[in-house]
Design a protein that fits this description.
This protein is an all-alpha fold. The protein has two domains: 97 residues; 109 residues, no CATH class. The protein contains seven helices and two strands; from the N terminus they run αααββαααα. A hairpin with an 8-residue loop joins strand 1 and strand 2. Helix 4 packs antiparallel against helix 7 and helix 5 packs antiparallel against helix 6. The chain is rod-shaped and about 180 Å long. It starts with 10 loop residues before the first helix and ends with a helix. The relative contact order is 0.08. Keywords: Coiled coil. This is At4g15545-like C-terminal domain-containing protein. InterPro entries: At4g15545-like (IPR058936), At4g15545-like_C (IPR058935).
């Protein structure tokens, strides 16, 4: 700063110098304040930008909040529908399990009936009785190779068992004409059909089991006839006579 030649002893000169000093100090202060204002303006712009960003973020969050709420309500509705579907599926599963059990039971019943029918078909065949003769008749002494037994060991004749029933006409089972002087031949198939139709299923099963034991040599002809007489009873004496004739015809 250039120094002017002042006479500081003069009051006017002193006043002028004081004013200049004040002006320079004011100018420095103004410059400093202007710089601070610029800095504050920059800071304010930054704050405005931040506020604007925050406003945008807030708006986005508000939109996301609304969308999340709508999605949550939609999920609740879907959950309710899923529970309904699950309940319906459980009911269907129970119905299917019940149907499955019924079908399996029916299949088992059918298999049991088929097995029973197979046994019945085998027993209804005349060949079955012929096949039993080597296993039973020979042992009981009724076959062609019959041995003479002492009177006290000889098996009773078939008439001894049949005499327990009253004499009635020939049964309704199908018969085949015999030779001259012989009794009509009972047809095995027709006899078992008739027995199956007239006997309760439990009694018929007992009857079949008795015949199986006879065939397996587990019991004698007389024991088989006694069991048959109990199964048939007096009201089915005709069936008993047909069965006895069937055994006799096949040498059993």
């Amino acid at each position: 700063m250039e120094r002017a030649d002042y006479d500081y002893s003069n009051s006017e000169d002193q006043l002028t110098v004081g004013i200049q000093i004040i002006q320079r100090a004011f100018q420095r202060k103004v410059n400093s304040l202007e710089q601070e204002i610029k800095k504050m303006e920059l800071t304010c712009e930054e704050h405005r930008a931040n506020v604007s960003n925050l406003d945008r973020k807030n708006s986005n969050l508000q939109v996301e909040l609304v969308e999340t709420k709508e999605r949550w309500e939609q999920l609740q509705d879907e959950e309710k529908e899923l529970y309904k579907t699950l309940g319906s599926l459980k009911k269907q599963i129970l119905r299917l399990e019940s149907l499955k059990s019924a079908i399996l039971k029916e299949i088992q019943d059918d298999q049991h009936k088929e097995a029973e029918l197979g046994e019945l078909k085998a027993l209804m065949s005349d060949d079955y009785f012929r096949g039993t003769m080597p296993l039973t008749a020979g042992e009981l002494g009724y076959g062609p190779s019959r041995r003479e037994l002492p009177p006290q060991l000889a098996p009773p004749r078939p008439q001894a068992v049949a005499s327990a029933f009253p004499v009635e006409p020939l049964s309704t089972a199908q018969v085949r004409p015999g030779s001259a002087g012989s009794s009509p031949a009972v047809d095995g198939k027709a006899f078992f059909r008739l027995a199956r139709s007239r006997l309760p299923i439990e009694d018929f099963n007992k009857f079949l089991a008795s015949i199986k034991r006879l065939n397996n040599q587990q019991q004698s002809r007389e024991e088989t006839l006694r069991e048959a007489s109990v199964v048939f009873g007096p009201e089915r004496a005709d069936l008993f006579r047909d069965f006895e004739a069937l055994l006799t015809r096949h040498g059993m």
